[in-house]
């Protein structure tokens, strides 16, 4: 089998439901142009990957990516994964672009084998609990109301995206713990809002309140800052979400002692191949590799990675609307369609999810 063409279909995507990510950050997007990357072969099979950044992807395919893939064997995923890193040295791809070719190649392999991608990877489980990952709401009272709705909807745990003020967020985290009790798993995501001093203040509050993890409190450019934070707070740090370099940068976080656990994902770790590298790296240190983000590609990762514990399901609105792929028991079940299975198995709007 050989690659005969690489195309991008531009897709008009509607505006998202209105939501916010902490103060000072944009949240929901208006109508934008998404894209479907397709890798075509001489045997009539086609692999896909979906993105919300269609215009950027199309430019890079036209200028850099297509010519490098034409005529190659699509089963040589390791070679092609390394080729994208070679092109990145020239172009400095946006972090999400690195993985799109890899995702499309895995989709193609699954279709050729007649198997869902998680089975090609080696399925570890066929269902996993989902946690509710909140947007930023207006008040402590609204957060408590949303938490009640999430638990009633079957979610096993709740992760907060809050305001980005260390003292206000600490108060919210304490009051949420008091509200739901000690048996509910709670997490906090700082979305890189803090410097080291404020991250320490909030980390102490999360430690006292028994939070399961403390995610991305600072920008991930300084491993040293994260090491200093890890030395002084008891709550485990969940690190290396958006750091460039996939397993290479993740290894530095682990080696420094900064990692309570690490993030992995198809979006920020150079596709499925990169995500699995990070997961296996973490497992070798007996650390968890928690899958970042929702969507069907990450659903496959959740089924294939032994050392992950939850599927992240976003709760963006009040009243709470549970993601359709998550059952009333709070479980995400394994996709069954061959390949990735965009727009199948009850997943809708695959382009908009990634």
TrEMBL record:
Annotated signal sequence range: none
Cofactor section: Mg(2+)
Domain Mandelate racemase/muconate lactonizing enzyme C-terminal: 140-236
Keyword vocabulary terms for this entry: Magnesium, Metal-binding
Domain of life from the UniProt record: Bacteria
SMART domains: MR_MLE (SM00922)
GO BP terms, alphabetized: carbohydrate catabolic process
InterPro entries in the record: Enolase-like_C_sf (IPR036849), Enolase-like_N (IPR029017), Enolase_C-like (IPR029065), Mandelate_racemase_C (IPR013342), Mandelate_racemase_N_dom (IPR013341), RHMD-like (IPR046945)
Pfam families: MR_MLE_C, MR_MLE_N
MF annotations from Gene Ontology: hydro-lyase activity; magnesium ion binding
Protein name, as recorded: Racemase
Organism of this sequence: Streptomyces colonosanans
